[in-house]
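testing teh design pipeline on a random one, pls ignore if ur not involved
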């Protein structure tokens, strides 16, 4: 079996297509990439993500590692990046804690802004996580327990006013809104 047949089997294409794809990959990478390196890169890419673009990116990434630190250092100076930041692998960046998305993320953003302003004014906002804030607000409202979306709605209304947002005030806003219906 020649190298194009091996590539065709790994890339799941026909042999004539394999020849043109390999030629295009080598052009885009900018060097004569050995077939063994291409096949090794294919093995590292999940089948659902395997495209010519992802393969070229993987090969360029691999050639960047092989070229060493000296070529990357010159690139980093061009962009005025700190070497530690530019050289940090994605996996360690993904390990940084992320803000919760969705409704709780919106509540967190509004509370953080409100509580930062309160601290600047000399007030002492509650020291609660978003989850604790929502649960305390829900227990203060009572039955029927409001949804997190209703809590967000109340926090949004209160954030437009010049008040310190607390679970009690949020619960009062929800109860007041329910009474007006």
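output:
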């Amino acid at each position: 079996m020649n190298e194009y047949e091996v590539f065709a089997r790994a890339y799941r294409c026909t042999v004539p297509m394999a020849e043109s794809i390999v030629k295009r990959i080598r052009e885009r990478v900018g060097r004569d990439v050995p077939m063994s390196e291409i096949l090794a890169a294919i093995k590292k890419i999940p089948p659902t993500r395997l495209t010519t673009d992802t393969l070229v990116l993987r090969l360029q990434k691999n050639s960047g590692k092989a070229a060493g630190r000296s070529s990357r250092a010159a690139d980093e100076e061009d962009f005025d990046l700190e070497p530690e930041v530019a050289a940090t692998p994605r996996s360690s960046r993904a390990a940084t804690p992320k803000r919760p998305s969705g409704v709780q993320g919106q509540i967190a953003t509004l509370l953080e802004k409100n509580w930062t302003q309160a601290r600047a004014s000399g007030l002492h906002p509650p020291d609660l996580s978003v989850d604790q804030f929502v649960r305390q607000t829900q227990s203060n409202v009572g039955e029927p327990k409001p949804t997190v979306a209703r809590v967000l709605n109340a926090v949004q209304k209160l954030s437009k006013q010049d008040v310190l947002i607390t679970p009690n005030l949020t619960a009062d806003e929800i109860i007041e809104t329910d009474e007006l219906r």
